[in-house]
Amino acid sequence: MIHDDLGEALALLSEHADVVASRPSDASAPTWAVRRGWDESLLALDDDALALAETDPAGVLARHAHPSLSDAMGRAQRLITRYASQRMASGARDEPHVKARKRAQLEILVEAARERFDDVPRFVDYGAGHGHLTRALLHALEVEAIGIDWTAESVTRARELAGDRGPTFVHADASTESRLLRGGELLVGLHPCGALGDAIVEHAITHRAHVMMVSCCFQKVPGDTRVFLSKAAKGFAVPQHALGLANLAPESFDGSGDAVDKRRRRRDRMALRFALEARGVVLEPGAEARGVNKDRVRHGLDDIATLAFAARRLSPASPEELADATAKADRVHASVARFSLPRSALGRVLEIAIVLDRAQRLEEAGHQVEVTPLFSPRISPRNLGLFARAR
User: Measured at the alpha carbon of residue 189, what is the angle toward residues 188 and 193, in degrees to the nearest 5?
Assistant: First the structure.
């Protein structure tokens, strides 16, 4: 199944590589939309259809009248549906210092570890951060535990929270640190960023270790492309600037699990880009928010403009500059939103492809592999669990 689903995902991405690589940024129709004859069909969507499509782009466009658009999105929807989850946690475990959504993730991962890896002698948590998952797994599995993180401050805080009888926490570059491994242990990663996820896979193969991982932040890779790992995907690569597409979700939720206004946030980011370009800043796709924590985007344009301009050592944007940028964003937003729909649908396909590529790499090396959705999107949109047992 993994091999077949990976092949299906790669076929879709190969056929629509130009859609994946090109981010709509103004009112003009992208070249890929004109070439396929999708431009007029997308612009013809009324506001109600657009609102519905923004929460389920593949599902809505799969029912579109345009034959090739409907076919492509139908294929995407069938693949996405196979990896969809609505699972919620019970919230039974009360972990201090941890937000509700993170507690839910910990609960589900602990349950998964108990079901699949209750016989391991030790686990190693890569990118452990403050050690929340490391402590939860130690409590559940009662085996030797190590947490590795490259940030000294995180390691210090993890040690404080763990106390004298907690796991061992190590300050190291988790993407290259494998000296601690001795084989047969469980390698764990809860949202390891980009290259770290690939490194966990390679560590597991080298040391015949097991894996439990939920991937994230696929764009954080060295170089300008991500080359796929498995033999089944040999030669397939995605530009680094397009990998962030795999992090997008049709719906986003705040720390309380409530839906956020993605349309307003997208318009604010668009206005920020126009304001920076008016100052002569040359931007790569999606780079306007560099220097702005993603959680700060909810505070509105004034706040993110202050941070983004300061990050580039520019004088603050004036109210007039922001007003002009907002007016321009309002004019082009409707078209950009419609042209973004096929690309948004392919974002989940790209995420699935990367996770399946990692799974296929492990399977080719002799591991017994499972990929399954773990969390509801309200808990985390990055919810594909990769489990592998070394044989």
Answer: 155
* Contact predicate 36/387, CB 8 Å: no
Q: Where are the alpha helices (DSSP H) in 118-254?
A: 132-141, 152-162, 195-207, 240-243
Q: State pLDDT tens for residues 7-40.
A: 999 999 999 999 999 988 888 999 999 999 999 9
**Is residue 385 pLDDT above 50, yes or no?**
yes
Under the phi-then-psi rule, with left for phi > 0, alpha for psi from -120 to 50, and beta for the rest, what region is 241? alpha
Question: In whole angstroms, what is the distance from residue 359 CA to residue 83 CA?
Answer: 14
The answer to whether 243 and 249 have CB atoms below 8 angstroms apart is: no
Q: Where are the alpha helices (DSSP H) in the chain?
A: 2-15, 17-21, 31-36, 39-43, 47-55, 57-61, 67-82, 100-116, 132-141, 152-162, 195-207, 240-243, 262-278, 301-311, 319-339, 341-364
> In whole angstroms, what is the distance from residue 19 CA to residue 271 CA?
23
Quick count: other Cβ atoms within 10 Å of Cβ 3?
Answer: 14
Tokens of 197: 């996820």
Q: For residues 194 and 326, give the distance between their C-alpha atoms in angstroms, rounded to a whole number.
A: 33
d(CA 294, CA 181): 34
pTM: 0.88
Long-range contacts of 258-265 (CB under 8 A, 24+ apart): 260/298, 262/54, 263/54, 263/333, 263/337, 265/297, 265/298
Regarding predicted confidence, which is higher, 209 or 102? 209
- Measured CA angle at 340 (ends 337, 343), to 5 deg: 160
What is the identity of the amino acid at 91? Answer: G
Task: Choose among 32, 43, 58: nearest CA to 345.
Answer: 58
Q: Which residues contact 133 (CB under 8 A, 6 or more apart)?
A: 106, 109, 125, 188, 190
Dist. CA 210–CA 185, nearest whole Å: 6
Q: How far apart are CA 359 and CA 324, in angstroms?
A: 48
Q: Which two tokens stand for residue 309?
A: 């301009």
Top pLDDT among 32 and 290 is at: 32
59, two tokens = 């599902």
